[in-house]
Design a protein that fits this description.
- The complex is a heterodimer.
- By secondary structure, chain A is mainly α.
- Chain A has helices spanning 2-5, 20-42, 48-55, 58-90, 94-109, 112-126, 146-149, 152-178, 181-189, 194-224, 236-247, 250-279, 294-303; strands at residues 129-133, 140-145.
- A two-stranded antiparallel ribbon of chain A has the order 1-2.
- In chain A, β1 (129-133) and β2 form a beta hairpin.
- By secondary structure, chain B is α/β, with parallel strands linked by helices.
- Chain B is built from 9 helices and 12 strands.
- In chain B, the strands form 3 sheets. Chain B has a 6-stranded mixed sheet, sandwiched between helices. Chain B has a 4-stranded antiparallel sheet with strand order 2-1-4-5, with helices on one face. In chain B, strands 6-7 form a two-stranded antiparallel ribbon.
- In chain B, β11 and β12 (231-236) form a beta hairpin.
- In chain B, α3 crosses α4 (128-141).
- Classes of the chains: A mainly alpha, B alpha/beta.
Chain lengths: 308, 258
Amino acid sequence: MPARAADDPDAIRAIPVRHWGRWVSGAAVLVIVAWVAWSAGRSGFIDGRTVRHYQFSPLILRGLRATVELAVAAQAAGVVLGVVFAVMRLSKNVVASWVASFYIWFFRGTPVLVQLFFWYNGVPSVWKRITIPVPFTHLALYSGRTVDFMTPFMAAFLGLALNEGAYMAEIVRAGIISVDEGQVEAAQALGMTPMLTMRRIVLPQAMRVIVPPTGNEFISMLKTTSLASTVVYGELLRRASDVYSSNLKPVPLLVVASLWYLVLTTVASIGQYFLERRFARGRVGDRQDDVGSPWERVRRAVGARPRW
Amino acid sequence: MVTAGVTPMVRAERVHKRFGRVEALRGVDLTVQPGEVTVIIGPSGSGKSTFLRCINHLEQISAGRLWVDGELVGYRQDGDIIHELREREVARRRAAIGMVFQRFNLFPHMTALENVSEAPVRVKRLREATADATARRLLEGVGLADKLDCYPAELSGGQQQRVAIARALAMEPKLMLFDEPTSALDPELVGEVLAVMRSLAADGMTMVLVTHEMGFAREVGHHLVFMDGGAVVEEGEPRSMFANPREPRTQAFLSKIL
């Protein structure tokens, strides 16, 4: 609005405060980082050739795929279990609420590594056969030796999913109770049943609170799958350790695995950003447009000139 | 307004409501005839909102009897035996009663149009196209034809409350309850909401309204009810009651706010 420019007050042109302390501490940090990198490179600690050789090798890629499969399956099951147990925990049915509380207490309170051993070693040693019967008959839907059923994948999946379900139940519960009571009343006043109210009104709004910590859970899950190497599931870490147990070069192979974990978690956090945006619908104040996408933020940060 | 032989829309007999040790309602007696606009006034804590919420069973009454359109609220009577209703049946009865809240309570994750068409589609199971057309017509009726795709957070308080009224009307209710519909609004936005309610009353909608808008009560109300201490203290025709309140408590209340 050039016409109004004449009325605008003069912009302040002042010499900004100089933050000498920041420059000194910044330089010190750079020196330390450079020194660590230089000494690591000189010692041959990271063998770049071996890393490059194995980074895309078929064995490692198969492990990568197994890691993703396990993480996605366990997280998906964990979310479903979480919703079910959160609703049970908040239910007026005392038995349901008590069972849910017990489940959360038990699976959150024991180490996931112990749970993995339990499913893989404990269960087959006690129950020799697994039979899923048709109730009240002698027919069986499934019957087999437990060791055939409890494959490394199955044990890892059960252990991680049940453990994750307990954490997700608490996250979903927090989301549900964050929704304003007036929303439930408005839905009820329109004749919606409690089920319909939960599905159409409460859960969609709870998602805004549920999605960010769920993203964290998934990122954490991608890394926790490495525990499945202890029950001989052929995921990324297991494949890497198979290689270095024969070539005796643990560091390059651990670097290979770590780089893949970093790729996976980076992709997951980008996905999380878009999911959060999706569930911020209708919340003007909370919309992230004002902050900008991660890419915009990077551009802004790089584009910003240091002022002196 | 009272016509012999017509079932009252709302009939309350000695309705009590206790919250723990607090007795919010201590024997409310009230009759609302079809097509009538009943305005309930009274000091805060007098139980007027609680009573309104009992009418569509958002609160369960502790004692007494409450009927809507000849049916017990929350119960089914079989001769002398009274059965509590299932959630599903309670929901079905609520679907025939519209309610407008002080804090609007629009669904923030849905646009204005979706707010209005949600219950007709999910509860009445109307086809989406049909419900959409009705929702459009209702939103046009409350002057929001250009806000169909706005989310509640993008609307002013007055606009939100008008969407809330359209949302309640979409269920074609036989009775509309208004719980202080203008109390959360900026003063300059009160008029637009009252205008919508006025035209609704002119169309013959049966309305029960808790409000502090005395002008509206006088002009539009057919039946004025003054509540205090969880009971009806005085009721009558609004103009004469404003002019000559009989009860000392009514006189005291009106002298403070008029």
